[in-house]
């Protein structure tokens, strides 16, 4: 069982009158973390993938909820976004029990869970995001990271995949995740009329990691309108499949109007989408994979360590590009990501060997 970076953060707020809300994609380890957090307490556990347990929590009367909780010290609600009245249900519980009991809710659909709890739980919740394993969650030694570097670029860091032994097992696990779980919450929404469009969009984005993405070009390619592309990309981002890196625009005289870049939260999922698990020596996208890895690891590091700041990329009129600009408290750091140790510019260069220190 891996030690997750947010584990201690959650423990610090337990029994202080706050609902702990854990969000993240399916299969990243939310249920495992939930069980680890509650193993030393008497816990009542609700699995809201089960219609009966989901319906039981739809009651909006605390007198109806009290018998369900009983003497448990912790109320654990898994896949809480499935409960239509979850915001009101959690508000009733936290207002009634206060610091006597701890409520922990997980959800794989941030747009449902966070939105439905935003108003009812104002001032009553803390939200924690769980991603696929960070490199340092999966390994404690730099040597182990170097040994598994190629594997990470090919198969990513979903817990089940990372702990699998053979390449065949990893590929099977990734295909199962990408086909059975990845789009489950998105496709359950009424706004999605054609599942094939989502699949085609994700595939198109997978071929464009590290490049600026034009919604107009995607709309033309997929034969849908631009607004649909924008909405689907927003849903994919809120489902923790992809994330956007915006262009840096402070110096408007040198920075041209640019589109966002889009990266994947997990490289194994990205490779599964295009069905390419080839060894790195046979690939022409290794540079893009490494760039994606560096940026998502920095994103995880900042999130887990409560580093408040912003991430951007920059390309100027004269064609020069900075892979990542990080702004924190008005200070800026610029980074290039290159697998080789050959310096290509004047900014800090991150390569395979010093990535461990970067994150």
List the helices and strands and how they pair.
Layout: H1 7-13, E1 19-23, H2 30-38, E2 43-47, H3 51-56, H4 62-69, E3 74-78, H5 86-97, E4 102-107, H6 110-118, E5 125-129, H7 135-138, H8 142-147, H9 149-155, H10 159-163, H11 167-181, H12 184-187, H13 195-206, H14 215-222, H15 226-238, E6 242-245, E7 261-264, H16 267-273, H17 286-304, E8 310-315, E9 321-328, E10 331-337, E11 348-350, H18 355-358
Would you kindly provide a written description of the structure presented here, covering whatever features stand out?
By secondary structure, the chain is α/β, with parallel strands linked by helices. The chain folds into two domains: 7-129, 3-Layer(aba) Sandwich (Rossmann fold), CATH 3.40.50.300; 146-358, no CATH class. It has 18 helices and eleven strands. It has helices spanning 7-13, 30-38, 51-56, 62-69, 86-97, 110-118, 135-138, 142-147, 149-155, 159-163, 167-181, 184-187, 195-206, 215-222, 226-238, 267-273, 286-304, 355-358, and strands spanning 19-23, 43-47, 74-78, 102-107, 125-129, 242-245, 261-264, 310-315, 321-328, 331-337, 348-350. The strands form three sheets. A five-stranded parallel sheet has the order 2-3-4-1-5, sandwiched between helices. Helix 5 links the parallel strand 3 (74-78) and strand 4 (102-107). Helix 11 (167-181) crosses helix 16. The longest helix is centred in the C-terminal third of the chain and has 19 residues, at 286-304. The chain is globular and about 65 Å long. The mean pLDDT is 90.
